[in-house]
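Structure ticket #2291
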Amino acid sequence: MSNETPRRRSEILGGDEDRRFTFPAVGDERTLLADVLAAQRATLELKCAGLDTELARQSVEPSTLSLLGLVRHLADVERRWFRCVLAGQDAPGRFSSADDPDGDFDGAVPDPDVVAGAWLAWREEVAFADAYVAEAPHLDVEGHDAWRGRVSLRWVLIHMIEEYARHNGHADLLRERIDGARGV
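Resolution: structure written out below.
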């Protein structure tokens, strides 16, 4: 028996059942961006798999960062960029607002209804975003954002990939803290 700690690389590069990044590495820009974003979204779901109210478990005080908070936050981010900025809808955040800017994380409490509501909201926003991307005539479709000014669908897709990638790194650490799972 070895006293060595298992290497993370062997845990991360797991079995054949993980199909998140098996899409073609060549193709048109829209398809590649949409596929990479879908893989990042699937990674978030994988990081949260098998957990219910444990999703609300926070990282380290005083931080309110939690997996459930990330799901709620990303639902609001999807909503903001695709519904509000690109589609021009007047759609206030589901979990955070100007009066409660940290509501996405602060409201992430260990209640089964809160967990179910977060996943429902996230899936609805992802579905809207996917439909918007599929129906857009091209990646140069623009919207206006108070923070960035004019933005294209192309920029929003790249930004969303970055947003998920960053938060999936947080999710790695949060999941390991909850139950020791690494490399999921």
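Closing remark: Residues 153-179 form the longest helix (27 residues).
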